[in-house]
Amino acid sequence: MRGITRALALGLVLAFVATACSTPAASPSPTAGTSPAATKPKHDLSTYQYALQTKGKIRIGTQEDNTPFSVKTPATGKWDGFDVAIGREIAKAIFGEGEDVEKYIEWVPVVSATRIPAITDNKVDVVIKTFTINDERKAQIDFSDVYFRTGQRILVKKDNTTIKEAADMAGKTICSQRGSTSEKNIATATNNAARPLLLDSYPACLLALQQGQADAVSTDETILFGLVKQDPNTKIVGKYFSTEPYGIGVKKSAGDRTGFVDFLNRTLIVLITSGTWAKFYEQYITPVSGDKKRTPDD
Amino acid sequence: MPGGIAFEFPELFFTGLWLTIQISVLGLIGAIIIGTFVALARVSPLVPLRWIGGAYVEFFRNTPLIVQLFFLFLGLPFLGFRFSTDTFESIFRAAATGMALYHGAYVAEVVRGGLLGVDRGQIEAARSLGLSYLQMLRHVQLPQTFRSVIPPLGNIGIALVKNTSLASTIGVAELLYAAEIVESRTFRAEEAFVAATMLYLVLTIPLGIAVNALERRMLVAR
Fold it and tell me: Which ipTM was obtained for this model?
């Protein structure tokens, strides 16, 4: 399966190179004429955001079933959620407000395990998908500043009285997503004594929990909120046993991502200071968490 | 050395390889047993049996294996059946059963072809010599059938070994799963998948050679 994606990625890269070569070398002048493009945000010509603006497309990688952060509504095919909203704001910062920003966005479905390959193989421009910043990952890709903070907790059935804290997971079957930090955190918190059941998505984990195939599901609290909403016969227990700072993942610049991370950070700061971030939090996170935050550090 | 990463994580890759072998062997044995009986049902003189055999083949051949695996793992408990009280034993058995049921449909088609390929005259001669239907199957039709279906059965066996990788989706820690875990821990994706590829080849290439050798021996015997 990975082989196919690799081959496709290579094909995409070749296609991109081919189109890039066929366009005239002269760069279009942003000041020329009085076209509607004049209303677009001005970016420095050497930057990646300028390259995206000229291309007229940003590829955003996120997951199709990761409520409340990102979900592709089956009926309409529309994307929604906190990460999706952040993605749209970034697209607006590149292509300009006031237009239907959706036409500039190509949503690329990713899962935890495919996030880094999608970035390093240049299949996406950014990954916004509950993406925990850590040192191992920083060796592979670049991250923006933190735009969301959460921690790992445990989801059990409502009648479960044996699992209360992270240490209680020892000897129990704990479901999480293959290729995620959650899996490693469970191993660390229990000294490798938990039995990991690793599936491709959290909805599958929830099903395994409902049928007693797993004793608990453990991952970032915000994702568990989404699961509790789907099944009110479950509850979240324990204190945070990890901290998960989420960032936007981008390819490490080899001269081809100039100024992009700075641009993302500036955009995030504007989102937070303008209150847009708080609005998104209230819209997507508050219904499942019950709390309100003005900034990621609240 | 390509694939050397397997020796850095032997507990993942080699237990994965061992699980792949176990699921493959159990699945193939199950598939041959199921397939033989379904094929016999399909060519039997009894119409209801023929109908059941046909329905089996159409159902299992025309639904994706991954869907069948998910049904066995997460769907059956809804109907009150589970393979084992232990989750990991349960997913292992679900995987082996899924392999047997799915590939059993393909084996059934191959064996049916073999059964129909046996000369009608021999069957009629056996019956007229006083052999019962079962005796005729045992001594005349089945031995010739198995001889002729060895090459296509070998193909199904190789396909089965590769299809065991789908068991990773229901959490069986087989070879592909091992590669994915190693990838997520080390980010050495190419190495991890090269290692898995090589270990799959270690299983499938000798299997192909064995099938070819067996086929030649059977030809001489004929």
Answer: 0.80
